[in-house]
Amino acid sequence: MNEGDARRRALVLGLDGVPWERLRAWAAAGELPNFAALIEEGAAGPLASTQPANTALAWPSIATGVRPDKHGIYAFYKLGTNYRHRVNTGEDVSQPALWELVSPSTVVNMPMTYPASPIDGRMVTGMMTPSRDEGFTHPPELAATIADRVPDYEIGLDWNEYRDRPGEFPDALASLVAARRELMNDFLADDWRLFFFVYTAPDRLQHLLWDEEILLDHYKQLDAVLGDAREAAADDDANLFVVSDHGFGPIEKNVHVNRVLADAGYLTPKSDTGTRSTLSRIGLTKERVLGTLDRFEIDVDELAKRLPDALVDRLAAGIPGENVRYDVAYDETTAFVHAQGTLYVNDTERFEQGIVPPGRIDALKTELTDALTRVRDPDTDERVLDVHDGDELFPTDDAAPDLVVEPREGYYVKPSLSETVFSDPGSHAADHRPEGIFLAEGPDIAADATPTDASVFDVAPTVLHSMGAAVPTTVDGRVLDELFAPDSSAAERSIETVDITGSDSGSRSDERTDGEDFSDVEERLRGLGYVE
User: What are the residues whose beta carbons fall under 8 Å from the beta carbon of 85, sequence distance 6 or more?
Assistant: First the structure.
C-alpha cells in the first residue's frame, strides 16, 4: 500500500429521495446504463433512513455518521419551550461533517449547510438557504464566480408555484438540473480530495408528480449526471459513492395525528371565545384569509416581512385555524405532534405551559402508543401508523421527541389540526419511504458487493475509511468493510479512530439566525408538505 492509496479521493453523489426498488427495476430494464453498471459491477443495495425518514434529519446523519440525538436536528424547525419554532440551519448541526475532517473539500447543494462554514475548500449551500445575498458560499466571493460561470444556477424551485400547473414542472426542473450539472463538472476540474455534490430534484418532482413516464425521463437525466461523476472519479482514481437520504412512494391519504390526539382527549384545541368566536361564526379562518389575499394578488411573504414578528404571531393566534403552533390550548394539552411525526409530551420541565409531571411521562407514552397504533383506515380497516419510542431512537438527548409517529405505506402524517383524521392529499402525490439507495464503485470497491443492513449512519465512516482518514469515535454507524475488495488498501488497513469534540456551532446558532429572513424557505417547505 503506497501513500497515495492511503490518501484516496472520494466523490459522493447525493440524490434526494431515490427509491431502491424502482431504481433497480429501471436499471434492470436497460433504461439507466450508468446506474445499471454500478448495480451490476460495483456495490449496491438499499440504505435505511432515519426515523422519521426526513431530509432534515437524514442528510446531517449522512454527513456526520451520528444519530439525530447527537447532531441535534429532529425537523426543519427547532421547537421552543413556548411552542413556537425557528428554522434549523447548518449551525445547529453539533457534530463535524465529513468535509470538516478531510481537505480540501468541495461541498455543493447539501441541505442543512446554510450559512456556509469556513472549511478548507469550497462550499455552496443548499436547501434551507434563504437567499444568495450572504452566507451562500465559502469563500464569499465564490457566489460571484458561480453567477459568472453558471448564470442559470438556482438553489431550488418553489414547488408551490407549480401546484396548479404541474405539467410545467418537469421542464423547469430539467433546466435546474442541467445548470447544476454544469457547475458540478466545472468544480470537478478543480482541486479536491472530497467532492460531495447533492441533487434534490428527484425529491421535488416525486412530491408533485408520481408518474412512471415523467419520473423515468428525469432519472435518465440523473443517469447522465452519474455518467459524468463516474468519468471524473475514474480519471482521479477516486472511489465513487451514490447515496440517497430516503426513498419515495405514492400516498393515498393524509393522517392528521393531532386530530387523533384531540379526539382521544390528549390535545385541546383553542376554544372559540371572544374575538376568535366572532371570527369563527362568520367563517373567517386562516385559510380564508390567505385565500383572499391570494385573490387580490397580495404577496403574503412580503406582507409578513413588513410586520413585526409579535404582530404576526398575535394575528395568527387570534384567527381560528388548524395550525398546531397557534390553535392549541397548551395549558390543557398533554401531547402534540410538532412536525413530521415528532410527538412531544407537554411536560412541566420542558414547556412553559406544560401540565404533565415527569413521573407520568412513561405511562402516558404507553397510552399514546396504544391509541395511535389502533388508528385504522375506515375504508380498508388497515392499520395506518407505527410508533417508536424516542428514548430508544434518541437515547443521548433528553430534549428529543418523546415518540416518533411514522405512516405506513400509502399514508402521510400531517401535523395540522384538521377537523377529520383522514383527508385527501390533493396535489401531494407521493412522499418519503424508509429505504433509499447506496451504490459504489472504484479502485477499492469489490465487484458485486452488497452492503449488509446499511443505514445513513454508515456513509460517513465508510467514506472516511476509504480515504485513509480516521473515523470519529462518536459515530453511530460502521465502516461497510464488506464493500472493499480483498486486495485493496481500504481492506488491508485497520480502521483508525479519533476522538473529537462536537462542533460549537449550536451555541452560535441563535446569534446568526435571529436576524435572518427565512420566509421564502418556509414557503418552499410548506409546498413540500413539511409545515402547515
Answer: 77, 78, 79, 325, 338, 339
Tell me whether residue 531 is in a domain.
no
In a domain, 529, yes or no: no
* Contact of 491 with 269, CB cutoff 8 Å: no
Domain membership of residue 165 (yes or no) is yes
CB 480 within 8 A of CB 457: no
Q: DSSP letter at 270?
A: P
Check: CB of residue 30 under 8 Å from CB of residue 493.
no
Cell of 83: 411552542
**Cα separation of 87 and 130, whole Å?**
10
444 and 388 part of one domain: no
- From 292, 315, 338, the end of a domain falls on 315
Beta strand pairing call for 137-138 and 121-125: antiparallel
Does residue 118 have a cis peptide bond before it, meaning omega lies within 30 degrees of 0?
A: no
The rounded radius of gyration (Å) of the Cα atoms in the chain is 23
Residue 505 has pLDDT above 80, yes or no: no
Same domain for 218 and 258, yes or no, is no
Is the same domain home to 97 and 226? Answer: yes
| Cβ neighbour number for residue 134 with a 10 Å cutoff | 12
Name the domain count of the chain.
Answer: 3
DSSP H or E run through 525: helix 519-527
* Same-domain status, 138 and 212: yes
pLDDT over threshold 80, residue 283 = no
Average pLDDT, the chain: 88
Show the domain range for 388.
Answer: 253-277+320-424
The per-residue pLDDT for 294 is 55
Please confirm whether the linkage preceding 130 is cis (ω < 30° from 0).
no
pTM above 0.85, yes or no: yes
**DSSP-based three-state secondary structure for 356:** strand
230 and 354 together in one domain = no
